[in-house]
Amino acid sequence: MAERGCPLEAVPLPAEVRESLAELELELSEGDITQKGYEKKRGKLLARYVPRTQGVDPSLQAETRIPGPSQATAPVPEQQKTRPSHARDERFRSDVHTEAVQAALAKYKERKMPMPSKRRSVLTHTAVEAYTPPADLHSAPPDVTTGLAQHQQTYCERPQLASVRGAPRGGSGSVLETAGGVPVSSRVSSKIQQLLNTLKKPKRPPLKEFFVDDLEEVLEVQQPDPDQPKPEGGQTAVLKGELLAVGSTWPPSLLATLQQWGTTQPKAPCLTALDTTGKAVYTLTYGKLWSRSLKLAYTLLNKLTSKNEPLLKPGDRVALVFPNSDPVMFTVAFYGCLLAELVPVPIEVPLTRKDAGSQQVGFLLGSCGVALALTTDACQKGLPKAQTGEVAAFKGWPPLTWLVIDGKHLTKPPKDWHPSAQDAGAGTAYIEYKTSKEGSTVGVAVSHASLLAQCQALTQACGYSEAETLTNVLDFKRDAGLWHGVLTSVMNRMHVVSIPYALMKANPLSWIQKVCAYKARAALVKSRDMHWSLLAQRGQRDVSLSSLRLLVVADGANPWSISSCDAFLNVFQARGLRPEVICPCASSPEALTVAIRRPPDLGGPPPRRAVLSMSCLSHGVIRLDAEEKLSVLTVQDVGQVMPGANVCVVKVEGTPYLCKTDEVGEICVNSSATATAYYGLLGITKNIFETVPVTAGGAPVCDRPFTRTGLLGFIGPDNLVFVVGKLDGLMVVGVRRHNADDIVATALAVEPMKFVYRGR
């Protein structure tokens, strides 16, 4: 049986029938009708003429194609065989059009071509089944329309002919010529003529010209400017921090300290929570913190079962879901997990079931194997609920069991029950989440030994002492807010007054008022809090900051913090604030606290600032400039490195060679007070937590690995650390580097209604 579409014996048909067939083929190719509809209409058109065909299988009569009279026996040259279907030129080929156009050309030779009436598809071309083109046609450049893909149905192979182009009109008939220059005199229908005119001058280049495989042909590789600034200083050395004081006064672990204060100083205030009006709603004592933590630890280990088996075992991870307005219950949950030898994973309260950020947190919980979430009754009531009344399953989260830890839900342990004694070891104490610039969330694991060393280093660097009052404006679940306001404070039996974020929005001056009310000796803020309080301080004449000996600026490493610090000092110096009290610090989730400025009474050098050329900074070179220029960046020091730590600055890319003294690089820390790993991610853990800096000769600078901080900076005079940006905010344009933080610094540096000057 002959294949569908193979050339058949010519059938004499009236002109109107052939024109209808051509239009029908055109409609099929453009998708105006289905294949079934096309066959039905074609069968009706040919019904009265099909019996005239001889030797044709009846099953093919409804689909018989009507070739031109010269198509039956013409030989097909080897060079004219169709290209493979996967070739780029064959992507949109349509055999329906080729037959329709050729049939019209062969039949209507004497008819004058009408003007086009309607614009049709631009992706149509023609081909002839049995036409033998001249030899020079093979070398002609391919027409854009030869890049059309073959029809989905199976047809016989036929030679391809370039598109037909209309010749200039004139005389009683119209002369057509193919792309190869073969003249054809013919008359065609309006639709066919429209097709020919459309293909006459293609508006688009061939499809393949839109794609270039070699990127070097598209992007010009910018060569370094020979006149660009280059570092000229000598090689830096490893900077060693002061020795960590070792004596009998340090406790063996943080939990041992909690037990000591909970039993010997049970009525000492530990934490005061405020409501959104600034009123103290509850003060947690050290005795209550110890007893509630014990009760929670006993409940977690003995009262939670699954299939008659304990739900939790030592080392399991537990999610802590508490709002920023409830530091008391969070602190109880955190220490309760530590006493039960469980690993707390503090996260944010999910707002909706399909929150995008919540999905990343769900990935973190899944990778940590979290199966239990601790929360309060009030917080649980605000979570999205399923139809059953249970907490809804959040998108991307693993299945969780929710436990409300309010007092009535916990079980009091027997008098002879005691938690397992735990020294500060290498086991994971807690996991803090970190969100990268790509939006992914990872868990940074901190060991018990690192937690204890961090508390000891902060105690020594900040000079904390027993019974001091600390006003904390930061998030107590992570970063400096956790390290100072929940961990180090308990080690030193301090009283923390926690300022909720909602109160700061309603009354930006609330933290200063609480410093006055509680005679706080220390305060923990960010530069934004100082900026907000400046806007709200007018009319407040009864505030005094004379009690402060330490004002820790947690984001002091950001370049815009210096303007907030200067403005805050100018206003509040007349209200008792001493200049040496302001202590910026630098930190990262991986290295914890990297450096902090010491007050003079703790032996710290005087503060310094550097006015740097931004043009040179974009090349990674440190050059001092004049402060009155507009294209400079003024940064302040973030103090000295932490006690017991070693710090060096290495090149940002490639092998971690030590930088030169006038070169910007990434700050790396070797200390017992850093985090230990990205939980469950061994690959990137090795790159970040096991870096081995080397000298220019390739020799390791230390026999112990360093931790990359993600902070870009340099070591200045008096061994002070300066930070000019973060690796996550680095933008590379050509061969120059810019930092996203500089954009914020620029916006804060210029006055409203003025221009951002060139060079910033």
From TrEMBL:
Residues 9-127 form the DMAP1-binding domain. One of its GO terms (cellular component) is cell surface. Pfam families: AMP-binding, DMAP_binding. InterPro entries: AMP-dep_synth/lig_dom (IPR000873), ANL_N_sf (IPR042099), DMAP1-bd (IPR010506). It comes from the Eukaryota. Residues 50-97, 162-183 are annotated as: Disordered. Residues 86-97 have a biased composition (Basic and acidic residues). PANTHER family: DISCO-INTERACTING PROTEIN 2 DIP2 -RELATED (PTHR22754), DISCO-INTERACTING PROTEIN 2 HOMOLOG A (PTHR22754:SF34). Belongs to the DIP2 family. This is Disco-interacting protein 2 homolog A isoform X14. It comes from Delphinapterus leucas (Beluga whale). The gene is DIP2A.
